Amino acid sequence: MTELKDNVERRSLDSILPYGENPKKHPDEQVDKIASSIRRFGWDQPIVVDGEGTIIKGHGRYQAAQKLGLDEVPVIEQADLSEAEARAARIADNKTAESPWNDDLLASELELLEEANGEIETEVTGFETDEISDLLEPDDEPGIGDAEPLGLDEEYEVIVEVDNEQEQEQVYQKLIEEGYECRLNSM
Predict the structure, then answer these.
(1) Measured in Å, how far apart are the chain's first and last C-alpha atoms?
(2) pTM of the shown model
(3) Cβ-contact 99, 106 below 8 angstroms
């Protein structure tokens, strides 16, 4: 097991260098959401840098700190990583965070937030108003969750067409969660 890195220190934002070849891009809209979250909930995820002060993890938080006009931010230095390890950690930080949502549980949590009598705006969660509305007031069109397994001994094949790989993964995961046997065909 690897050593737990808990040596958080405060550093000047000017002493931190973005990694110029970072493959994960953070559009202004996302940076605004990160800044809003930091402003509302505080800073709870340090920026991780290498021994030279170059960001390994936390480019979006770095950009949000700039937007907020912060002078200092919490940082963990991982000077012990090789260049290859830092590169892999940078990619893994973003890739391993990808996963589908359980829309029913998410809608329930958002409903509870809305019922909190205005204590907090649901938009601070990072979801757009339209996304929240869609989750809380779904249309009446049948969806994946509306299908009932037939309970027959016969096999049926259903083809679901989607627009992109992310949507394909979401549909696939939802069907698996519902207990259907699935296989993916390349798009």
Answers:
(1) 39
(2) 0.68
(3) no
Q: What is the pLDDT of residues 161-177, one digit of tens each?
A: 777 777 888 887 888 78
Q: Are 145 and 178 in contact (CB under 8 A)?
A: yes
Cβ burial 19-50 (10 Å sphere, 16+ → b, else e):
beebeeebeeeebebbbbbbeeeebeebbbbb
- Residue 178 φ/ψ, nearest 5 degrees: -80, -5
Place of tokens 């049948």: 142
**Type of residue found at 139:** D
Q: Domain 9-95, what fold? A: 3.90.1530
In the chain, where the domains are located: 9-95, 100-138, 146-187
Q: Is 11 helix (H, G, I), strand (E, B) or coil?
A: strand
